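Reminder to self: tokens first, then the designed residues, so the page reads top to bottom the way the pipeline ran.
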């Protein structure tokens, strides 16, 4: 079974890793994505202590899931290192870092290098990143060549969810230009 765990600890919670009081909505994206094996993911909200004492077994595969900010003042790399130190030798635990909301990117940001340092003890094959910015995706693909690095947008999900009928392209000539 594949189990995605949103940590609810005040210290680690992906739902709280955000700028000021704005909570990133990344947790909703995973609900829509099929797992790569075609199996459904079981989504659970647990503290780290509950995860180790009540949930974790060597028989299942786990993904610890975090919504993170793309902003340069993101400072929770030490929390990431702390998690990595605990799980680096457990082959059945993966990490997923998702920001499907922010669309900013600046040339002088070095977030991918900070992530590389924070995750240096974690096997890259067990790391996934999802970003809403193609420039960020390309940077992370170069920095983490053996990790899953994908584009994902909450904006697209909102658009799709708002449509009731199947899309039918128009065949008429355009009469409005902006």
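Designed residues (178 positions):
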């Amino acid at each position: 079974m594949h189990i995605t765990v949103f940590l609810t600890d005040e210290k680690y919670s992906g739902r709280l890793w955000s700028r000021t009081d704005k909570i990133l909505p990344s947790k909703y994206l995973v609900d829509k994505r099929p797992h790569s094996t075609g199996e459904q993911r079981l989504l659970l909200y647990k503290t780290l202590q509950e995860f180790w004492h009540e949930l974790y077994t060597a028989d299942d595969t786990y993904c610890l899931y975090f919504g993170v900010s793309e902003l340069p003042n993101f400072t929770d790399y030490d929390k990431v290192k702390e998690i990595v130190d605990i799980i680096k030798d457990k082959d059945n635990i993966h990490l997923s870092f998702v920001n499907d909301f922010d669309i900013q990117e600046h040339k002088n940001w070095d977030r991918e290098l900070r992530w590389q340092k924070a995750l240096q003890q974690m096997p890259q094959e067990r790391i996934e990143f999802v970003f809403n910015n193609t420039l960020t995706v390309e940077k992370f693909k170069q920095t983490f060549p053996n990790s899953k690095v994908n584009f994902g947008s909450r904006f697209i999900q909102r658009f799709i969810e708002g449509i009731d009928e199947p899309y039918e392209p128009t065949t008429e000539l355009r009469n409005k230009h902006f």
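The chain has one domain: 2-157.
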